[in-house]
Amino acid sequence: MWRPGAFFPNSAMPMSNTATLPTERRAAGFAITPEALRLLVAMAVLALMWISLRPFGAGGVSEGGETDFAREGMLISQIGYSAMAAVVLATVMTLVDRRLIARFVSVGWLAMFAIVGLSAFTGEADGVWRSVAFSLIVTALAGAVTLLPATARDFETALKTVSLVLLALCYGGLVVDPVSSIHQAFDLEAQHAGLWRGVFFHKNIAGPVMIMIGFGGIFLMRRRHFAAGTLIAALAFLFAFNAGSKTALALAPLVVAIVLVPALFGLRLVAAIGAVVAIAGAHALTVGTVFVPAFDAVLRTFSETTTFTGRTAIWDFAGDYVLARPWTGFGFDGFWGTPLLLATEQPFDRAWDPRGIVHGHNGFFDIVLFFGLPGLFMLIWLTVFAPAIDYVRAGRQTGNGPLADFFFMVIVFAVLTAALESFFFRRADPIWLTMIMALAGLRLCARMPLRS
């Protein structure tokens, strides 16, 4: 997919990148080529990220209980993702150009991985070391997706194929297994009855993932896969609409306006600046309103009574805990749902009891609770500022524009979504994994041209 040789003009490309003689091509006609193997592995990883090892598993929650469902799903995911990680590692080390791997490695992400790893010492959750290891393995696995396809055409094939399979499963499930594919009145959250979730556990996962896949459809249309791209975009956006994820539906056109419209006119610097401003504004006017009165005053000029469905009570409740451990945090998964939190007294006048929730409904807020200020500052750099810089640089690489636009749209959309949802380092969460794929792909887009 990438041409590292363009940066090493005096170095020979690997044997797999050279032309094959006609006689050799005929002899290997029935063999699986290294390029084909890399494509198959890339599609397998994408399918694992989006479809998971337990598609339609949400239908069993009301029968077996949420705890049993989560425990069983965690075990299956740990085994499946670990096996896939071993396959990907073997494929990358044997079939991918070592110079490409060197360009792929990021000092910033190595530092972030170290912060996450060290947080296991401060975490008190059961099985914290296992959770940290699994999260880091899955994150690295998602990032490696962009290393696997041998050419840009192969990446497009993987994206198109897996997107169509996912959409077929989600729409087919509405007919074949509606109890699992559609939220029901007897589910744990009866207020979501009738909303689509497809193969996913919850409509708040289905909506954002479908928006990201819709962006992929737009990318495929720009790369001359017009029929498939149009079909993917239309079906994905329609599914997101019926998933009823209001945040995702509101952000999708905003991201198109911020990123894609300027990019079509070659104004990627304008798009990068607009994205950073939009991200800063979104977080300032959500979680920031609880801690900065000036931000709250601005918000109240637009909406006098909004609490973001009770989220302000959550942020206000946990704010004092941030100050208790500002540099180390409470460790990976070391706050929500822990005995420390459950033993806290609940004021009678609070609109929502935050002690029973599973996350803080803001990605960066949870990061500072888990990993402290070092983790927060590092993740802000890696997910906001570094991608903006990479995006501007990627526009200067011949042929990288449409792919960089796709990756940057996914990143901006995910970080904006994180203003009201929390998915950073949430192991097998498809929103997080798709964002990681885009971050890794954009990094490579900024450093080397594509192989067509």
UniProtKB/TrEMBL annotation:
InterPro entries: O-antigen_ligase-rel_domated, WaaL-like. GO terms for molecular function: ligase activity. Its main location: membrane. It is found in: Membrane. It comes from Roseitalea porphyridii. Keywords: Ligase, Membrane, Transmembrane, Transmembrane helix. It comes from the Bacteria. This is O-antigen ligase family protein. The chain crosses the membrane at residues 36-53, 73-93, 100-121, 127-150, 162-180, 200-219, 226-243, 249-267, 274-295, 367-391, 403-425, 431-450. It is a multi-pass membrane protein. The lineage of its organism: Bacteria, Pseudomonadati, Pseudomonadota, Alphaproteobacteria, Hyphomicrobiales. Residues 232-380 form the O-antigen ligase-related domain. Pfam families: Wzy_C (PF04932). GO terms for cellular component: membrane.
